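Lab notebook, design round three. We kept the backbone fixed and only want residue identities now. Task for the bench partner: fill in a sequence for the structure below.
Input structure tokens:
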């Protein structure tokens, strides 16, 4: 009961703090921004497939990461209807991305909405990884994803459940087709099978790693706020603004395109809500290394202390 009261009080305090922040103008998107949101992931996908066809797997992995991150952003904005597209088109995009990402986005959408209704609360299965250690969050990637699916189906409406099962069926079809194609000797078909096998494996690995990066990384140890954020411009470029996470939680209707501007406004109006970053600062890293080094030195000195040697004590 006390934990729930503290949780509710924190959210009330945050809501009161951000009351003066202007954000409604950031909901608007230009036509070029909408086109960017729609097209964004697919050049990276085609590039990764081309690299695989040339057996350039290191380059393919880099392109696959960019595709996954960009597609993750597109799906995330789709959950909140902030792509700038209509409802039917957004549904179509999420179904297409489900097949390409090898994961049911409509089942994930249901748990994601619960994550926003009660962030890090008892009913928030998506945010549950933030409450455990980093290594447990990393090892629990696969089972976590399965838990998300089960909870997403339970939370979904009948209409959303039907779409989620359609996505699972389409994903299974892609896997079956890939297995069938591997039995053909034709060079072109063999290359297609090679591309599909690579894509399925990389997407499965990427899905298993989402928990440690997109949940634990942005939510762990958030005492004063509900999420972390990032200010490194290169990191934000390579993650397509996904790490502006406290900004997103405070104003989920703002598209990813405008999160950098929202971050500036929050830094000015409520800097205490944006002080916890995803990546540790240089001072934090140095302090951590110094602390570990000092502990190692202390342990070494204690182990080599003559007074603690049992043999010396016996003959003293």
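Proposed sequence:
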């Amino acid at each position: 009961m006390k934990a729930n009261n503290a949780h509710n009080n924190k959210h009330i305090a945050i809501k009161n703090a951000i009351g003066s922040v202007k954000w409604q103008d950031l909901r608007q998107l230009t036509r070029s921004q909408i086109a960017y949101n729609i097209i964004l992931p697919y050049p990276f996908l085609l590039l990764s497939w081309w690299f695989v066809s040339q057996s350039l797997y290191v380059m393919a992995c880099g392109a696959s990461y960019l595709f996954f991150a960009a597609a993750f952003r597109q799906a995330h904005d789709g959950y909140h209807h902030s792509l700038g597209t209509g409802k039917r088109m957004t549904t179509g995009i999420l179904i297409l991305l489900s097949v390409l990402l090898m994961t049911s986005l409509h089942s994930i959408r249901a748990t994601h909405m619960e994550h926003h209704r009660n962030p890090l609360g008892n009913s928030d299965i998506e945010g549950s990884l933030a409450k455990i250690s980093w290594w447990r969050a990393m090892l629990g990637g696969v089972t976590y994803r399965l838990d998300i699916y089960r909870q997403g189906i339970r939370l979904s409406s009948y209409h959303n459940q039907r779409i989620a099962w359609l996505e699972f069926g389409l994903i299974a079809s892609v896997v079956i087709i890939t297995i069938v194609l591997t039995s053909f000797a034709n060079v072109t078909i063999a290359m297609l099978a090679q591309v599909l096998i690579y894509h399925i494996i990389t997407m499965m690995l990427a899905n298993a790693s989402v928990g440690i990066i997109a949940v634990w990384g942005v939510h762990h140890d958030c005492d004063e706020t509900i999420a972390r954020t990032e200010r490194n411009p290169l990191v934000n470029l390579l993650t397509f603004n996904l790490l502006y996470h406290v900004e997103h939680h405070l104003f989920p209707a703002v598209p990813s395109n405008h999160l950098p501007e929202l971050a500036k406004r929050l830094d000015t109006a409520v800097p205490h809500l944006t002080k916890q970053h995803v990546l540790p600062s240089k001072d934090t890293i140095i302090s951590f290394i110094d602390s570990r080094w000092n502990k190692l030195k202390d342990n070494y000195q204690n182990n080599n202390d003559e007074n603690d040697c049992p043999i010396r004590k016996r003959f003293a």
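Keep this in mind before ordering anything: The first helix runs from residue 2 to 17.
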